[in-house]
Design goal:
Elements: E1 9-13, H1 17-28, E2 32-36, E3 52-53, H2 66-75, E4 81-83, H3 89-101, H4 104-132, E5 143-147, H5 150-165, E6 171-173, H6 175-181, E7 194-198, E8 202-203, H7 206-219, E9 223-225, E10 230-235, E11 240-245, E12 248-251, E13 254-257, H8 263-268, E14 277-287, E15 299-302, E16 307-312, E17 315-324, H9 333-346, E18 355-365, E19 372-374, E20 383-387, H10 393-403, H11 405-413
Parallel strand pairs: 1-2, 1-13, 2-9, 4-17, 5-15, 13-20
Antiparallel strand pairs: 3-8, 5-7, 6-7, 10-11, 11-12, 14-17, 14-18, 15-16, 16-17, 19-20
Helix pairs in contact: 1-7, 1-10, 4-10
Amino acid sequence: MIQGPSPRSVAVLGAGIVGLASAWELVQQGYDVTVVDRATSGAGTSRANGAQLSYSYVQPLADASIWRQLPKLLLASDSPLKLRIQADPAQWAWGLQFLAACRDDVSRRTTEALLALAAHSRTGFDAMMAQTGLDCDFSATGKLVLYADAAAFAGAQRQMLLQRALGSVQHAVTAAQCLAIEPALEAQAPRIAGAIHTPSECAADCFKVCEGLEASLRVQGVRFILDTEITGLVTDGVRLRAAQSTAGAIEADAFVLAMATGSVPLARGLGVRLPVYPLKGYSVTVRAAAKHAWAPQVSVTDAARKIVFARLGDRLRIAGMAELVGNDASIKDARIATLLAAGRDVFPRASDYIAVDRWAGLRPATPTGLPIVGTLPNAPANLLFNTGHGALGFTLAFGTAQALLAPLRAAGRA
């Protein structure tokens, strides 16, 4: 037996950024916390993500514009979206629910909810940084989202107006203004129809944040049980009693399931079906040029390619793609080559473009893009879910962690 229950004890299952942020917020509220993971902190989907903290600019993947893009996205050889159709009911169900969510009204509601979560997340992340002073290559230099044609730019401006009405500070800018904001875009400027500039956006190395959080949480008394597989969840009929693991039973008063796509089979074992499917993404990290004007300081998103660029100290992170290929986390050389080619095209002098790190991760996505946070019907009352963040796990982690607190208190009274 690894751990017996103690008053206000919570076991957080998952040590990615979502699980660690959950542990952080719980500790601040005085809970006795244990974190369990099959690997080490931040070793999975959090390890080399896009690095952008998109607190004020959110564009749900499920959007009405996807319908006119769908033929190209599915058929083009260099498409950022790849679908490998499988004999998997979960893939078909998720895909149909995703297409049903590609409506303007759903996108508006999702945008509003995501921005509210992101605002809380910014506050939580900033408070954590002020308390810990983590060294994580943090920057607050803003973000540019580039559009290559007038129609796409017009659609982006409609989304910008929606986000402005919800409190975001954003501006539509010309190619010349892009160049003034980010001089490293000199080679790309002739191909920019326009861009959306969000000056308050941030970037950081998520893996370094995870490492720093673990160190700080250990000092605050959090127990870590790492390199330990969770094999099942044990109930007494009403409440979750223990998480069964390769190291034995882990008991607590309450549990947070924050294992990204790994949450799905564990929930299924309790008869709960989570509408979460892996969206595979890739990244490559390269050295940034020493000359200040050659490598970007501002985070940049190429909307057509669905590729992001984020400066991390003396490195440049290039990330993107969305593949519905099941639980295949292998790194495809062709996808890495596409990312490197995009870097050479957009920022030709920014790097030698020799990869210092290659990564693929399975982002846990819901059909609408809204994460699943809190308790669920037909699940044990003391089991809280924190998954389904898609590509916004880093951005939303502290917001969804805060959102756990009210249902956790309610679960304690149940």
